[in-house]
Write a structure and sequence with these properties.
InterPro entries: VWF_A, vWFA_dom_sf
Helix content: 40-55%
Shape: globular
Strand content: 15-25%
Structural class: alpha/beta
CATH superfamily: von Willebrand factor, type A domain
Distance between the termini: 23 Å
Protein name: VWFA domain-containing protein
Length: 241
């Protein structure tokens, strides 16, 4: 399973639309989930709308947290987003195996068996999470709480039965560019992700769309998707008849 977990306050203002980029990610088998860190007022409403549109286009989930509740809420929502994303991805693949039928249309006893498989695969399937952090100037006051959320994400992934890997990116890489910087390449040493935060410089514009495209390209070069998707499809195809 492949996913991008974007942490942002929305309001992208440079380059390609992040909604278009998220749709491209989803078309290539990468789910885009968004944890939105928004403020009140018109700017917050605009950011909220963009966050929801990105997640919808990326086939993922969005969760919002007001700044004053950030320390607690982002931790909780990050964990919940990861778990629900795994379940959502497994269920989508399972529906493909079932053809036009839905899980709800199955007999109760069969439905229970399928739900059990979803729970099991959610916990044991291989997972790669590309963590994409909005490090624009508007996010600077929120950095400490975001750091706590990432530490919590690391603990959640480490507690899974299946193998988990994480890569960490932030954008913009320079003050006013469209670049995105890789901070941590794929690693199973998930606890090391939080150590990156003291080196982050929160500055510049918000090129969310170009940053998403950068991570999509990173996934493509890693050539991970075919092996992972084949394994997951095979497990469910053998089970569901």
């Amino acid at each position: 399973m492949k996913q991008i977990l974007l942490i942002t306050d929305g309001c992208s203002n440079v380059g390609l639309s992040p909604v278009i980029a998220a749709a491209q990610a989803y078309a290539q088998g990468v789910t885009v989930n968004v944890v939105g860190v928004v403020d009140e007022g018109d700017l917050g409403e605009f950011g909220t709308a963009e966050i929801e549109e990105i997640a919808r286009a990326g086939g993922g989930l969005s969760r919002l947290a007001q700044t004053k509740q950030l320390s607690h809420t982002v931790q909780m929502l990050t964990r919940k987003t990861v778990v629900q994303t795994i379940q959502h991805a497994v269920q989508r693949e399972l529906k493909q195996v079932l053809g036009t039928s839905s899980i709800e249309a199955l007999p109760p006893e069969k439905r229970g068996e399928v739900v059990h498989v979803i729970d099991e695969l959610s916990e044991t399937s291989k997972l790669r999470v590309a963590l994409l952090i909005d490090a624009s100037a508007s996010m600077k006051p929120k950095l400490a709480a975001v750091e706590e959320a990432i530490r919590d994400l690391s603990l959640s992934l480490q507690s899974r039965q299946g193998s988990s890997e994480i890569a960490v990116f932030h954008f913009p890489g320079s003050a006013y560019g469209e670049d995105c910087k890789l901070d941590l390449d794929w690693t199973g040493n998930i606890s090391g992700a939080a150590s990156l935060f003291p080196r982050l410089q929160m500055r510049g514009t918000t090129p969310t769309g170009p940053a998403l495209m950068h991570v999509i390209d990173f996934y493509r070069k890693a050539d991970y998707g075919n092996r992972n998707n084949d394994e997951t499809d095979g497990m469910m195809s053998d089970y569901v008849v």
